[in-house]
Each structure stands twice: as structure tokens, then as C-alpha cells.
Fold this protein.
Amino acid sequence: MTGYQIVPVDVPSISPFLLRDVREGSRRTPAISLDARLYLPDATHRPVPAIVLSHGLGGAKDHREHRYARMLAARGFAVLVFDGFVSRGKQRFSDTIRALRVTESMLLADAFAGLDFLARRDEIRADAISIAGYSYGGMITALTAYRQLAETFLPGGPRFAAHVSYYGCSVPRLDDATTTGAPVLMMLGALDRNTNIPRTEAIAADMRRGGSPVDVEIFADTYHQWDGNDAERRFVNFNLHQCHFRIDESNGVRDERTGIRMRGRASRTAMIGLSASRDGYHILRNEAALERSDAMLLAALARSTQRASAPLRDDEVDGRTRSAALPTRHGSSGGGHRTVPNEPPARGRAAMAGGRRA
């Protein structure tokens, strides 16, 4: 374990409503500054590996995003935490209004802005910057693995070294599934009705064909947000289980079921409204799932930092499933998923995950 400092930083980003709005100098992509915190370990050896944390609809919470930041900084990682809702003045709204006003394009812009910001700092290893995200941010984390979106926001720029998605909404698939080649870990709860396990498996298969090794881990007897602070089961009154969008090669977005195309605020609201289900979903903290997911996160980051080089450049990706780049112990890189019983992890793994929760 090591000490760390927390440094307030301003991260330049943009605020495009749609993916197609991302054009240099476009009036549809107003510049903003992310109010962020950079956790810097007191490392004797620099540069250090780093990770960007992409928050959920609740924003950057002390018991979640900042808890992970503390845990990772104590283990030698620089960690960037920001809140895209606060930075856009939307923190006072409900989760539903936030989802309608702060779009996936905006949060993608923030994630790549964080990557670019870290890669320019001398104390950070530019080839060892990963991303992890939670719920809405888990979906963003998976999307940042696609070459098309990386090129949209950071043409020719740095790429994430690994992607770790926690209970990410399984909403979008891409017509062009070519990835950056970086490994992807997606962790879901078996009882989580806000995610869609078959669709997540389809997305994972897309990514494997596109060039990334992918692990899908399903935690048995686990609901959404197992790392939250809900000691009793809490009901959320709508879910996105059947919200299935498609992104084409020109960054156009359409609803797979209705064919509606996302052209602006009204069409996006209609697409989400017609797909959201009032069946809802439940949230419940699960200590066993948290301990296992901590160990998996740390193992994924350790493997990514030990890789000989950064993820393949765009012109190097040839569609291979680069399983050798991320040796998996779970047997899911070749297809399917593994349901993980919530048993206490092996002794060494528990030690790796750390002791008392922050």
C-alpha cells in the first residue's frame, strides 16, 4: 500500500448531444471543463499506470467512484474521477432527467477527454491508462473499446489499455465492431433486470470478432449496483432491459425494434421512452460480489500494465481475437460467460482485493 494525494484538476471536454455532432469547430459541440479529482500515488517510481472512472446516473459518489479511486491509488494507480452532471449543471435533476439531458455522446466525450488529459502528464504511463465504469458508465466503458468511437473523439490519439464494465446497460451494438484490441471485462449480476445477459453476450461476441479478448462474468444471486450502499433491496421503477440501439458506420443511431433514428432531443427521448420498461429493477449491496469484483478488477489492471506495449494502433488491428494479450482464468474469451458463485475468494485473491472497505 502507498499514500496518495488528491489534486483538483480541470479537464477540457466537449458536450455533443449526438455522436454525429462531434466535428471540429462545430457549434453542436460546446466546450466545457470537467470538475475532476486526480488521485496521485506517492510513488517513488514514475510514471505510473492510471485509470479513468466513468460514473453512473447518480454521478460520482463517495461510496462508489471515490471508493474505487482510494483503493486503486493506494495500490499505485493514478485515478481520474469527474462528474459530467455537475460539470454541466444537471446535478439537481432526477436520474431520468439526467439520462435525457446528458447523453451517451457527452459521457463518451468525457471519457476520452480524461484519457487525453492523463496521457499528456509526465507522471502517467500513456500506454497503461485503463477505464472502468458503473451502470451508465459501464456502457460507456464498453463503447470506448470500439475503434470507430475512439477515432471519433481522439483521432490518431492514445487508446485505453483495458476496459472494465460494472453492470453496464447493454443498449448499443455497432455495425462495425472493430475494436482497438484492448481487453474487455464485463461483470453483471444474475438478478439484474436493468441489464440483458443475452445481449451482453452478443456484444461480447461482436468485440471478440472485432479484435479484443472479452470476459463476461455473471455473479449469482446478485442485483444491480452490488457495490452501492443499499443494505436493503431498493426498487427502481423502470429498466432498459429491452432498449436496443444500433450505431452505424457514420455514427447514426437507430432503434433496432422501431427503426426510429436519433436526430435530436425529441427522437432520442422517444427511443428511450418506447424501450424503457416499467417492470423496473432492484439494487442491493452484496459484499461477496464486491470482494470478487475487486479481485477481478485488480487482476485485469495488473495484466494490462504488464503488457509489453500499448493496445494495437488502429492500422494494426486485423480482426484477430488477441487472447494471448490477456490470458484468462475464466474460460470466457472464446465465447459464452461464466456464472460466478458468490463464495469467499481464495486467500491470495482476497488479500489482493484489500481489507476493510472504504
Notes: Confidence is low (pLDDT under 50) at residues 308-332, 344-358.
